[in-house]
Amino acid sequence: MPKLWNETIEAHRRAVRDAILDAAWVLVAEHGLTSVRMSRIAEETGIGRATLYKYFPDVEAILIAWHERHVADHLERLVELRDRVGDAGERLEAVLEAYALICHRREHRGTEQVAALVHRGEPAARAQRQLIGLFRDLLTEVAETGVVRDDVAPDELASYCLHALAAAGSLPSEAAVRRLVAVTLDGLRPPH
Amino acid sequence: MPKLWNETIEAHRRAVRDAILDAAWVLVAEHGLTSVRMSRIAEETGIGRATLYKYFPDVEAILIAWHERHVADHLERLVELRDRVGDAGERLEAVLEAYALICHRREHRGTEQVAALVHRGEPAARAQRQLIGLFRDLLTEVAETGVVRDDVAPDELASYCLHALAAAGSLPSEAAVRRLVAVTLDGLRPPH
């Protein structure tokens, strides 16, 4: 087959896959994890049940794929903020704030069941390592500008950031999240 | 019955209960959660099986009680450090370091199964609230001395501390834990 045709098939498969993930997510958000069936997902996506099973074996696999895509989107957004042109300190602040807001919105979406399902296993661990790596690289770069302390290794500071910002999950407002980001950033500054 | 007699019985019951918790914990640490039976716990404690069942219905209940006692001991230790005579800033540092070391040792004990069992439900949630309360009270007190920032509310700072210090669980050494405490403390100081 010509290359173009293969690409078209690939794009089509990706579009169907995305539509399945979106449909499953909408159904889970509306009706809860346990009441969503494969047949309902096929119907909502506008495909046959047999086609759906060519993509995924069960609802759990769909939700895990949804979460992987969701995490990949978040990582992409954070990488984009990190790699922007401009002052390293400002980029650090932008990444910290974006991550804190992700934590904040996650806890407010009321999807604890799904979280318990997807926050284990290798994909989740890999995403966590990528996140740590992203923070570590940025902190290493920023440390050279003197904006960030150099008496603690960047990977230890990265772990501090990720844990501290996770507090955003239990904060009541985005204003409180921004205060948390300011406090966390002050911990990163060179000591007086 | 005279009061003294009641107190003696109460003390005896408490001693038996403590011995059961200790025995169960030793067995779980040695053999793993799933291979520990009630009969083995009774044997290790030096009591009959029937007596054991008067105290606890199953292994899970014993481990939950063990964890409650364990958490209560930790809280007591933190309260004791908080209430010492002396400089408020130093007491804050002592409490932060003690809590970080608790997190550090917890993750290094290899008791993930037990953690999954006990870190849910009302007693765990109550302990978490007590911990937040302890940090908040101390931060409120210290804020008055000017050692801690007053542009963020003490309960938000308490949540920041607890989350940031939980990073101690994945740190490789106590030296790294002390660096984490220093970074976390710097986040609490009045901004330059």
Automatic annotation (TrEMBL), chains A, B:
Gene3D superfamilies per record: Tetracycline Repressor, domain 2
Keyword Transcription regulation: yes
Keyword DNA-binding found: yes
InterPro entries per UniProt: Homeodomain-like_sf (IPR009057), HTH-type_TetR-like_transc_reg (IPR050109), HTH_TetR (IPR001647), Tet_transcr_reg_TetR-rel_C_sf (IPR036271), TetR_SbtR-like_C (IPR049445)
GO MF terms, alphabetically ordered: DNA-binding transcription factor activity; transcription cis-regulatory region binding
UniProt keyword terms in alphabetical order: DNA-binding, Plasmid, Transcription, Transcription regulation
SUPFAM superfamilies: Homeodomain-like (SSF46689), Tetracyclin repressor-like, C-terminal domain (SSF48498)
Regions recorded as binding DNA: 37-56
Domain HTH tetR-type: residue ranges: 14-74
Taxonomy, superkingdom: Bacteria
PANTHER family in the cross-refs: HTH-TYPE TRANSCRIPTIONAL REGULATOR BETI, HTH-TYPE TRANSCRIPTIONAL REGULATOR RUTR
Name under which the protein is recorded: TetR family transcriptional regulator
Organism: Rubrobacter marinus
